[in-house]
Amino acid sequence: MRFETSTIKDIAKALGLSTSTVSRALRDRYEISEETKKLVLAYAEKVNYRANPIARSLKERRSYSIGIIVSEIANNFFSQVINGIESIAYDKDYHVIISQSHESYKQEKLNVEHLASRSIDGLLIALSSETQDIDYLRELYAKGLPIVFFDRVPGDFETHKVIANNFKGSFDATEHLILSGKRTIAHLTNSENLSITKERLAGYKAALAKYHIEFRSELVKYCQHGGMHSAELEQAVKELLPLKPDGIFISSDRLTTGCIMALKKTNPEVAHKLAIAGFTNSNLVDLFSPSLTSVKQPAFEMGRVATELLISMIEAKRPVTEFETKVLDTELVHMTKH
């Protein structure tokens, strides 16, 4: 026997209403009275009515799906952002389709174009470390695809953006190292292309300047692939150690955990003498050795806010012309030495 679900027509027939009235009541439209809405919703719950998403998408010419592009899902920060995205999307009956760029511009572009071809209703994206040309995103945006950037954002793109307070987070971390007595503080960071790299470098420089410590460019090492290639990270650490830093400020989640591993592999004796502060959303920070003072980003909240802004664009009755950049505060978590 084939299982059959109740339809809007079934509800309308049972209640003596038109199908359009039932449809509008289920969508909480203003023109339907509260009494009728309650009647329809109560009966729909009784017969376990569920909207047909395929029929709905065909009728409304929407897929009720959102595309997400991150560098890698295994990254603690991005996995928490995705949880935040899902918490809003699923609550509003949107599905999410997640793709990874692996810090590759080519892969990012292929993924975005594939998602667009699958008729996603909107895109949430954190740019890859290789991405400099975003014309392909401008073209999709001009054709009507809503796009919201988070974490790694372009400077000259008129849409909503959601970021952490990168300047303050890096300033606080560097200042903490200075107040701990450190004077030769290295900075390990991502690709120079990224917005987070520029903002975190500025915070690092500002903290040095406040305490009259000269900025030395040789103490800054850029990792083009953000720590995804261990050889690149190990090379950066090897170049830093002869400069005898007594502290390191690290600007991203994967770089922070990767740097600790690289230090142990390269020079375990020095590793335990270095003070380290870095951006990481790992829940295992207290197990790290050497110990780490961490800058935590509100990743879950970033995902929630970005998704709310994207859905507001998708569901807007008129073209959205006013945009905002939401800046969320970071938190400095002090760790004591083991």
From TrEMBL:
The keyword Protein transport does not apply. Residues 7-50 form the HTH cro/C1-type domain. GO terms for molecular function: DNA-binding transcription factor activity; transcription cis-regulatory region binding. The keyword DNA-binding applies. Keywords: DNA-binding, Transcription, Transcription regulation. Residues 6-60 form the HTH lacI-type domain. PROSITE patterns: HTH_CROC1, HTH_LACI_2. It comes from the Bacteria. Pfam families: LacI, Peripla_BP_1. PANTHER family: HTH-TYPE TRANSCRIPTIONAL REGULATOR GALS, LACI-RELATED TRANSCRIPTIONAL REPRESSOR. This is Transcriptional regulator, LacI family. It comes from Pedobacter suwonensis.
